[in-house]
Amino acid sequence: MSLGKILGLDKIQKLMRMMKEQGGLRASLSHLYVTDDLKTGRLVGEDKFGNKYYENNEYFYGRNRWVVYNKKVHLNYDGSMVPAEWFGWLHYKTDKNPIEHPPVKYDWMAEHSWNESETKDAYMP
């Protein structure tokens, strides 16, 4: 075991690499504020709403796939903003993402829309 590992310098090096991949200190702090997490990973794809999907197999199974919501929703993100095809990939129903294996689209299927409760577009009877 090296002295750098004993002193925790490898953790500092990993933090610096994460900050560099996020775009610097300010971008890292902004991302940390919005998502409560600072992760690095491979960009797998992006959906039509602008959400970005990442994967990093160095993390534990179940924590190695995640979504970063579109910046325009800021703190008002919701799990219903993830379309069904990406939901299946995020929750390990399939290992093939919608980019590799596009979903079948039938005429009777409705377009995905997220839950609009507590917005000005909410349904009011």
Structure description:
The radius of gyration is 18 Å and the shape is globular. Strand 1 (42-46) and strand 2 form a beta hairpin. The protein has a 3-stranded antiparallel sheet with strand order 1-2-3, with helices on one face. It is built from 4 helices and 3 strands; from the N terminus they run H-H-H-E-E-E-H. The longest helix has 14 residues, at 9-22. It has 125 residues and is an alpha+beta fold. The chain has helices spanning 3-7, 9-22, 25-35, 84-90; strands spanning 42-46, 52-55, 65-68. The mean pLDDT is 86.
Kindly report the spatial arrangement of strands forming the biggest sheet. Answer: 1-2-3
Number of helical runs? 4
Rg, nearest Å = 18 Å
Encode the helix/strand succession as letters. Answer: HHHEEEH
Mind describing the biggest β-sheet?
3 strands, antiparallel
